[in-house]
Design brief:
Elements (H helix, E strand, L loop, with lengths): L2 H17 L13 H14 L5 H9 L2 H4 L4 H18 L8 H14 L2 H17 L5 H17 L9 H19 L2
Length: about 180
């Protein structure tokens, strides 16, 4: 990436750090923003995508859902495309949980392949990070991951196939670890 292209990613990293500054992961110790950074690194270094807007969306993927950030904040700072991808990665917390999850899965399926790749990176990181959790929390992570991966079962966008397969492999590995104790 050229320095001009890097700017949106660098701005997104700083924005995510500010937005998530008081949050920690489920282990109670790790700054939450490390998850956002890892998701972007997975998109880039594990899945092989280097498009700056996509990387920015991956860093910002939880800002609307988990912080005071709204769509307009992201649109103003990063443009309609990035804001739209982040919005597609955001659950509507106003809905009851069952309805929210159903709507979220429909939203993911309707979104572009870039959103699919960002969500797959999110799942991949949550599965990797689950090793630090209790067995119950790990099971919950696996169950949610199974639901989200199933969204694209038989309908994986061509651009996301390799990423999907990597997530499937990671999911099966964690499932096996849980089954074997």
């Amino acid at each position: 990436m050229s320095p001009d292209h890097d700017e949106i990613l660098f701005d997104a990293i700083a924005f995510a750090a500010r937005a998530h500054r008081h949050q920690v992961r489920k282990d109670g110790q790790t700054p939450y923003v490390s998850h956002a950074y890892r998701v972007a690194m997975i998109v880039r270094h594990v899945f092989g995508f280097d498009e700056p807007k996509m990387l920015a969306a991956s860093v910002l993927h939880d800002t609307i859902e988990d912080t005071t950030t709204d769509f307009e904040d992201l649109e103003t700072n990063f443009g309609r495309t990035v804001a739209g991808w982040v919005a597609a990665l955001t659950k509507d917390t106003r809905l009851p949980e069952g309805e929210r999850e159903r709507a979220y899965c429909e939203q993911l399926l309707a979104a572009g392949w870039q959103v699919c790749v960002c969500k797959l990176a999110d799942i991949y990181d949550n599965l990797a990070d689950s090793a630090k959790l209790t067995v119950g929390q790990r099971r919950r992570t696996v169950e949610r991951s199974q639901v989200y991966v199933a969204v694209w079962s038989g309908r994986v966008p061509a651009e996301a196939k390799a990423a999907y397969n990597l997530v499937q492999n990671r999911l099966h590995a964690v499932e096996s670890q849980l089954a074997n104790g």
